[in-house]
Amino acid sequence: MADRQQNPRLMLSNFLSLEQCKELEFIHKSCSTVGYRPSVFSTTLSHLIATNSAHLIVPLVLIREKLKEKVEEFFACEYELCIEFTGLVSWTKGASIGWHSDDNRPYLKQRNFAAVCYLNSYGRDFRGGLFHFQDGEPTTVKPSAGDVLIYTADNRNVHSVDEIIDGERLTLTLWFSRDGSHDEDAKLISRLSEIFSSEVTDVPGFNLPLPASSNMYWFSPDQSSDHDSAINICCARIYALGFGICPLEDKTNFLDVSDLLMKLLQLTRNNGLFNQEFENVLHALQVVQYYSWKASELQGQATILEEGKVIPLSRSQSQKVRDLESACVKDCRLAQTTFGCLSCDRSGTPEIFRWGSFSAAVDAWRDYTNELHKDLLRSLPYWRNHQLIFHVAFDEL
Ligand SMILES: O=C(O)CCC(=O)C(=O)O
Ligand SMILES: [Fe+2]
Fold first, then answer.
1. Long-range contacts (CB closer than 8 Å, 24 or more residues apart) made by 74-79
2. Cβ neighbours of residue 45 closer than 8 Å, sequence gap 6 or more
3. What's the gap in Å between 135 CA and the centre of ligand 1?
4. Which of 104, 180, 183, 270 sits 20 to 30 Å CA-CA off 69?
5. Which residues form the Fe2OG dioxygenase domain (predicted)?
6. 335 phi and psi, to 5 degrees?
7. Which atom of ligand 1 is nearest to the CA of 91?
8. Which atom of ligand 1 is nearest to the CA of 149?
């Protein structure tokens, strides 16, 4: 490992389990918006709260805590650090960053330490995207799912990331600060308190995702803001997993396709229509991503598909599916190179698709969501008391 004084940094292998990586991948692929740099997508905790998906913070809580402990221990911090920023970040074809330190802007000076957790792997999930330090050892880091890289944010750790050639490179990135006024927890807890103060959290649909402003979901590789060349990232991710989208309403009633995506819609695959309505595109995306996460598990279970749950697509429905696809993804190749899987055509889902397994995933997603939501509501009073987001070990209380 590097000289501790000259280049204070630490690499930990298998810090996260592959199952944790998969869960964070599910969260990111269900919730991401266009990010802060070209061809970069991000999911911040405040975004999760803003889109009615605050419960998805729960799987991150223990991971954040363990990372903070590691950083404090390795850098022998005298006082407790605060977490300044937590984000799931993915980089796609064309994204890169040249030599920099993470505190290299006046508004970033509060950043003292960084932790980058790799959630997928170089060579398998993406090509390009190697990490380099300008000085000291290791010179190059090959991202591998579960590993974490920790370093100081100052100029003793100048680094760069090679351009992504193919695939989607995914990380969980945190920055830590010694300056408590930059604590993201305080802001997040105050937002959570506002939302959950009304106590009307048990009504059906309370935790269905609610899309943010529509421009956060349109991506164009050349950064032009017009929709002509842009693809809708929620739709593109659904298509990349082999599904189609059939809106319930007629598109002629809408000026903008983004409005149509906010309304009820159904999922299709080949010539079948899954006979259940989803509130909006984000709701459908979350379920599809959940299926993709759990597919191999679900595939092994015996499932019975309810009669009438999948019906043949009518001609007019097929037309609606095609119309929406061409409005949301003008350039199929762009969608495929951005969100497609490296080693397969239509990724994530097993070769044999069964609606029975998908139907089981819809129920399992609801149970998963309800469990996390309960955890969140139970934890929130403790978080408020301590002004800290931490894992509350209820079994030991
Ligand atoms: O993802 C990485 O490996 C590092 C990213 C980075 O350098 C940054 O976001 O500042
Ligand atoms: Fe960086």
1. 74/10, 74/150, 75/8, 75/113, 75/152, 77/178, 79/178
2. 57, 60, 86, 87, 184, 188
3. 16
4. 104
5. 82-178
6. -60, -45
7. 1
8. 3
Tens-place pLDDT, residues 116-173? 999 999 999 999 999 999 999 999 999 999 999 999 999 999 999 999 999 999 999 9
Question: What is the position in ligand 1's atom list of the atom closest to the CA of 160?
Answer: 7
How many residues would you count in the chain? 397
Q: Which domains does the chain have, with CATH numbers?
A: 9-197 (2.60.120.620), 214-372 (no CATH)
Phi, psi (rounded to 5 degrees) for 291 = -60, -45
Q: Residue whose CA is closest, atom 5 of ligand 1?
A: 161
Q: Is 116 in the pocket of ligand 1 (CB under 6 A)?
A: yes
How far apart are the C-alpha atoms of 13 and 151, rounded to whole Å?
A: 15
ipTM beyond 0.90?
yes
Residues of the chain with pLDDT under 70: 1-2, 198-206, 223-228, 253-254, 342-351, 396-397
Ligand 1 centroid to residue 288 C-alpha, Å? 28
Q: Which tokens in the block code for residue 370?
A: 């309800």
**Ligand 1 neighbour 67 (Cβ under 6 A):** no
